[in-house]
Amino acid sequence: MNIAYQMPTKVLFGEGCVCANAALIAEMGSKALIVTGARSAKSNGSQDDVVAALSQNGQDYAVYNKVMSNPTIACAYDGAAFAKEQGCDFIIAIGGGSPMDAAKAMALLARQEIPETELFSGRYYTGVLPMVHIPTTAGTGSEVTPYAVLTNHAAQTKMSLASPLLFPKIALLDARYMSGLSNSVTINTAIDALSHAVEGMLTVRTNAMTDIMAAEAIKNIAFCIGAMKQNALTTDIREKLLYASMMSGMVIANTGTTVVHAMGYPLTYFKDIEHGRANGLLLAAFFDFLQKSVPEKVSEILSLMGFLSVEAFKSTMIELLREKEAVSDQEIMEFSQIAIKTKNVGNTMIPPSKNDIINMYKASF
Question: Which domain holds residue 155?
Answer without folding.
Answer: 10-177
